[in-house]
Amino acid sequence: QVQLQESGGGLVQAGGSLRLSCTPSGRTFSTRAMGWYRQAPGKEREFVALFGLSGLITTYADSVKGRFTISRDSAKNTVYLQMNSLKPEDTAIYYCMARAGSDYWGQGTQVTVSS
User: Fold this and answer.
1) Which residues contact 41 (CB under 8 A, 6 or more apart)?
2) How many Å apart are CA 86 and CA 68, to the nearest integer?
3) Cα torsion through 105, 96, 46, 30, rounded to 10
4) Of 18, 2, 44, 16, whose CA–CA distance to 110 is shortest?
C-alpha cells in the first residue's frame, strides 16, 4: 500500500501560479511513476502530467504543456506540480497518483482559478 499526502491547492486569479506537492509513504520502494490527474465538476478525471522515476521521463497533457511542470525532489521524496499561467478552465480537484503495481490516489486538492 502507498499513501499519498497532497498540499498546495487554493484560489488564484487567471494568469497566476500555484505549486502542488505530493509526498508518498508506505511501500514506496515499488513506485515506478507518479503523476497528477484532475477532475472538474461534471467531467471525468483526466490526465495532467506524469513523472517516470526510472528514466526521469515526463509527459504532459496537451492542455497544460508549456504551463505546468512536474518534478521530483528525491531527498524529500516529494513530487511537485508547478502550475503557471493558470486559466479558469484549470479549475478542478487535482489528484496525485503513484503507480506501484497498482495505482494509488491521494485525497485530492482543490484548485480554483478566477477570471
Assistant:
1) none
2) 9
3) -60
4) 18
In terms of DSSP bridges, do strands 78-83 and 92-100 run parallel, antiparallel, or are they unpaired? Answer: unpaired
pLDDT of residue 27: 82
Q: What is the pLDDT of residues 68-113, one digit of tens each?
A: 999 999 888 899 999 999 999 999 999 999 999 899 999 999 999 9
Specify the length of the chain in residues. Answer: 115
Distance (Å, whole) CA 103 – CA 110: 21
DSSP line for 7-33: E--EEEETT--EEEEEEEEESGGG--E
Contact criterion met (CB below 8 Å) for 50 and 65: no
CA distance 4 to 83: 20
Written as nine digits, the cell of 97 is: 497518483
Share of the chain above pLDDT 90, in %: 81
In this structure, what DSSP letter does residue 89 have? Answer: G
SS3 44: coil
